[in-house]
Amino acid sequence: MLEKVESGGVLDRLAIGLSGLCLVHCLATSVVIALLASAGGLLVAPAIHEIGLSAAIALGIVALGRGIWEHGFMMPSAVGGLGLGVMTGSLTLPHSTTETIYTMIGVAILALGHDLNRRAVN
């Protein structure tokens, strides 16, 4: 049983790390766009956002779903799902400060869901 708890914590920590990388990406992209418009074009490519969101959804399903299975609490998955929904909704916005802000809000909510999940297992 202890091994399952430890492996679950690793998934949530990995997901929180991915959320942190997303925040760094959003902030770095804003700074780079402000400084170098030509380099910023590469970082705001829709493919980067779509791949990142796909990874977040896949990891979220595994980590948060595992949490429901192990500890039976729905709250972490509901919070994480809300974060994923906000992130997905931000993809529909034009590339702007608004999109970046909504993405960062979604990432923060998702990270909170993973943290709640990690704490519920322990």
Short synopsis of the structure:
This protein has helices spanning about 1-35, 35-45, 45-70, 75-90, 95-120.
Task: Furnish the topology, listing elements before pairings.
Elements lengths: L1 H34 L1 H7 L2 H26 L3 H16 L6 H25 L1
Helix pairs in contact: 1-2, 1-3, 1-5, 3-4, 3-5, 4-5
Distance, first to last CA: 12 Å
Portion of residues within helices: over 70%
Task: State the shape.
Answer: elongated
Q: H/E series, N to C?
A: HHHHH
Question: What is the makeup of the main sheet?
Answer: none
Summarize model confidence as the mean pLDDT. Answer: 81
What structural class should be given to the helix and strand makeup?
A: mainly alpha
Number of strands: 0
Number of domains: 1
Radius of gyration: 15 Å
**Low-pLDDT residue intervals, each spanning 5 or more residues:** none
What's the total helix number?
Answer: 5
The proportion of strand residues reads under 5%
